[in-house]
Amino acid sequence: MGAVEMLARASGEFDRRLRDAGVPLDAPTPCEGWTVRDLLQHVIVGNRIAVVMLEGRSRDEIVLARQELLEADQIGDDPAAAFASSGAAQVAAFSAPGALGRTIHHHVFDTMPARQLVTFRICDLTLHTWDLARATGRDEVINEGLVDWVYAAMEHARGRRAVAAAAARPQRSSPVGRGAPGRGSGSGEPSRNTAAVSLSRSVWNVAWKRFTMFDSPTVKHSSMIWSVG
Fold first, then answer.
1. DSSP code of 28?
2. CA torsion sign, 6 to 7 to 10 to 12?
3. Which residues touch 22 (CB under 8 Å, ≥6 apart)?
4. Are 42 and 128 in contact (CB under 8 A)?
5. Tell me: the pLDDT tens digits for 92-148?
6. pTM here?
7. What is the CATH number for 221?
8. How far apart are CA 194 and CA 176, in angstroms?
9. Under DSSP, is residue 196 helix (H, G, I), strand (E, B) or coil?
């Protein structure tokens, strides 16, 4: 399955957790300092700014557009509808002929292949799906094919040694240690699904912090390893 199909699947997994009535917007999430409202704002802005990037805007224009999106309420009175519209727009933008072959500007990395950006978006949506599920008491078991894809992307990005090192370090927001509903051995052992999400989140956190410390030319070179799918 290609990257655009995986993006649509990741959007669907996030959307499914929002479709239940009564999403507690003020509930805390595993993302330190963020409520569910903060999480939704972050994800929707990510969806919308990806569309702007694929329009061929300059880096300065993207920085300005992103700031405007962050300062505006992206959720409104219907969180599910707000996410669904932003997610559909993002999938449509990546589905356009030639979209994945473009080089786009980014507010952190200066320029990057669009294929790398779609990898970022798939990983971000998948990991935040688990955050949303944990914060709201929804089903924490994410589609196996999607989890496998994200795990492979993380492993590709950082290598097997980084994955092993991250697994050895306890993470504050890690689902490992609590089995997903209806999965696992029932003895507190994590299921394969939650373990893969945990390892992916660990590597994502380490890699993102490392890359954003670098100057743009170094980031451009280093970040090429993220182009997957």
1. B
2. negative
3. none
4. yes
5. 999 999 999 999 999 988 899 999 999 999 999 998 998 999 999 988 888 888 988
6. 0.74
7. 1.20.120.450
8. 6
9. helix
